Amino acid sequence: MTHPSIVILTGAGISAESGLGTFRDEGGLWAQHRIEDVATPEGFARNPQLVVDFYNARRAHAATATPNAAHAALARLEAEYPGDVLLVTQNVDGLHEMAGSQRVVHMHGALNGALCAACDHRWPAPLEMYVGQACPSCGQPTARPDIVWFGEIPYHMDEIQETLSRADIFAAIGTSGNVYPAAGFVQLASHVGAKTVEMNLDPSETVALFEETRPGKASETVPLWVDSLLRR
Ligand code: NAD
Ligand code: ZN
After folding, report:
1. Which residues form the domain of 98?
2. Dihedral sign, CA of 142, 148, 152, 157?
3. Whose CA is nearest to atom 22 of ligand 1?
4. Any idea what the Cα angle at residue 107 is, between residues 86 and 179, rounded to 5°?
5. CATH for 127
6. Were 177 and a residue from 22, 136, 162, 206 both cysteine, which residue would form a disulfide, CB within 3.0 to 4.6 Å?
7. Is 79 left (phi over 0), alpha (psi -120 to 50) or beta?
């Protein structure tokens, strides 16, 4: 018997209980800045210092966080489930990896990465990046955080779409369904007949498109869902 293949999409909500604020949290890092200023290529061109400082602060904050029971459950699913599991995250923290997940697709980039705006070279980011930092490959002063900003194309879309096109189960965890293309994955999955499930604290924008919802905190809903899959 073949085992259903699973695609999981995670968002800021899965890291909320690890102390990393979601984008809507009042008083969080995002609340103090406008998206246009810190999360677009135009914002970086206007004020690179503000953007580099913002991601330095997020990197420092993420470095103090530890995975919660939801991250741990997804790592256990990957380790114990006999079928295919692809974990796609919109998060730029490294909590899935810290929990033990090995195959994690960071569609919006990662805080621990640096990218050269001139030659696309990538390397591990230092804890503190600075404006005008040189690229170790081409030598230009064009280093930037390896984060996919609004207006840029998310990473690994071919692999994600190809895997979604043969998914039997699609789960979205801790994501508000506001940002495309990730918010459209549920439609792709339903289109190929996958069973779809949302695990979110509040109903997302796209909740009506899911077959099943498991409302609640990710640290409670995700371990239960993983148990149900491993018991099959
Ligand atoms: P989000 O902050 O938009 O949504 C988080 C979701 O998690 C919410 O629907 C909330 O109900 C849920 N949630 C909160 N705590 C939870 C918990 N303990 N357990 C389960 N669910 C919980 O985050 P997102 O959907 O990941 O955003 C997608 C992408 O959009 C991000 O990667 C980011 O790049 C971008 N984004 C940026 C901004 C911004 O710049 N201000 C705003 C929105 C989205
Ligand atoms: Zn370069």
Report:
1. 1-20+68-108+154-232
2. positive
3. 13
4. 110
5. 3.30.1600.10
6. 206
7. alpha
Give per-residue pLDDT as tens, 186-225: 999 999 999 999 999 999 999 999 999 999 999 999 999 9
Q: What is the pLDDT of residue 91?
A: 98
CA angle 230/222/219 to nearest 5° reads 135
Q: What is the pLDDT of residue 30?
A: 80
Q: Is 108 a catalytic residue?
A: yes
92 and 131 assigned to the same domain: no
User: Is the pLDDT at 28 greater than 90, yes or no?
Assistant: no
Residues 6+ apart with CB under 8 A from 227: none
Mutate to test the pocket of ligand 1, among 96, 179, 221 (most ligand atoms within 8 A of CB): 179
> Residue 144: in which H helix or E strand, if any?
strand 143-147
Of 161, 202, 205, the closest CA to residue 179 belongs to 205
Neighbour tally for 122: CB within 10 Å: 15
Residues 181 and 225 in one domain: yes
Query: How remote is the CA of residue 63 from the centroid of ligand 1, in Å?
Result: 19
Q: Are 199 and 226 in contact (CB under 8 A)?
A: no
Residue 1, pLDDT score: 63
Q: Considering only CA atoms, which of 136, 149, 144 is closest in space to residue 52? A: 144
The CA distance from 126 to 176, in Å, is 30
